[in-house]
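Ticket #4471: complex job returned nothing on first submit. Input attached below:
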Amino acid sequence: MMAIGDMISCREAFGKALVEAGERDPNVVVLDADLGSSTQAAIFKDSFPERFYQVGIAEQNMIGMAAGMASVGLVPFTSTFACFTGRRVADQVSISVAFPRFNVKLLGAYAGIPAGKTGATHQAFEDLAILRAIPDMVVICPADGAETRQVVLAAVEFEGPVYIRSTREVLPVLFDDDYKFEIGKAVTLREGEDVGLITTGIMAHKVLEAADQLQTRGISAHVLHLPTLKPLDVPAIIDVAQRFDWLITVENHGIIGGLGSAIAETVTEHAPVRVHRIGIRDHFGESGDDEALFTKFGMNVEHIVAAATAR
Amino acid sequence: MSSANGGVDAALVTRLEGIAANARQDILRAIANAGAGHTGGSLSVTDILTALYFRVLRNDPERPDWPERDRLVLSKGHASAGFYAVLAARGYFSREEFVENYDTVDSIFMGHPDRLKTPGVETSTGSLGHGLSVAIGMALGLKAKGPAAHVYAVLGDGELDEGQVWEALMYAGTHKVSGLTAIVDFNKLQLVGRVDETMSLEPLVPKLQSFGWKVVECDGHDIAELIAVLESAREDADGPVIVLAHTVKGKGVSFIEDQVAWHARVPTPEELQQGLAELEVK
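Support reply: We reran it on our side without changes. The output follows.
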């Protein structure tokens, strides 16, 4: 069990949760495209070697095999980086998994900026956009290790394709045991009066830090976390949109097609309000220290604070 | 299983040849009616599917979800008209229902197979290169979870251009995945031209063998040979078997046979009548 403040990466929590899922459900199997030690899916192999399939650097075949396994009642998890699940196998995910509605759980690890200094090729800034656009796909982007664990277990309980995004950074646990993750439900992390901050994934950490700094300046920030980007918690978004005249979205992803787009689309339809989107602004990434890149790309705590005070 | 045709009963072969001829008529009628469809590749795969669904593949049209059934993935999903025609002949739905509703809104007969719509369709296909991977997953899944059943993947020869096919071939060969038979409808043509002029597959047999597969060649229009080869392949417990079924694209209709232009051409009313006449069972 994890306690608030424990240091753990989403990827490690993911690997450990796979073992827990495997213990609960004998149908859970894992397929890995030669990245299991990075995605941490390989932890599963130690406990269930006969239920772990190493497919080599062949992501297309991996996705198809997972679809076939799901068709006969297994619950396959596929292990590769977010850049590959989003870009390289978009067609296999769409046509072999989602279209026939097979019960495959797709991992996208090393998502966004913190991809181990690998740079543009391995930094997925469009995976959420691509996965969101695929019909019947559930898209989940957890904030910390505790939520990641619950997401994995909930994905096994859910019948249908699910995309789970994980990250590499070691971060403090935000959620305690009282927290109950539910697919499609937004979570209010902090009640506030002056400005609405909406976040997903690990950016919750930066948004909460920004909210602390805003508090010292006398600005009360409301923080809504959307672990599920699809299906969206539309009522929760409308509620926030009706309470604030300006929303700020913060995501470890491009502003095209991810959280910012989803919020803008939703409020435009239901409760028009100005939306300021913080995220990658239509460019490729680069190698470097994670925090230096968050700063360079205008996505760090200071940028959230600046956006919230500049209105 | 001793003669040249593996001892396949002659009366059965004659009956299946008649069923295949009728299925080809249904293919022409459905495509003419819809004004769309892949005529050449549907006509080339008809005998393969007939041999499978009427003899080799364990299936029951009354119970499409029967857990012990064998699975077939039509990876060359564009040959849906051929697929539906044989499934209709087998009794999964009526022949007229297919012919009248192919490619129409709200029907169960999409241009490419949709498993959520059509009984007997195990998975949705049409994006070439996907099916063999799915079939491998089915075979491994059935092995892990049961019940024991055989899995077939039917690919086009042009489809072998897709890199994913070779990922799948390498995986199944390396891991000696048994309970799996791949069949290539080797009709030598693809959309824009001849396969050997588009991107040569040769030397295909040693290439496939070097990927760890047992390779068998046969006449893809000889029902008796198809049955013998396919029944023998399913007994092979050592690893995956791939059958190169040599076929003629557009088989059965003189002016469609081996014509690149008939990949997805629709017969005119006159062509339809001539084609139906040529396919009439004597």
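The longest strand of chain A covers residues 246-254. Closing as resolved unless it happens again.
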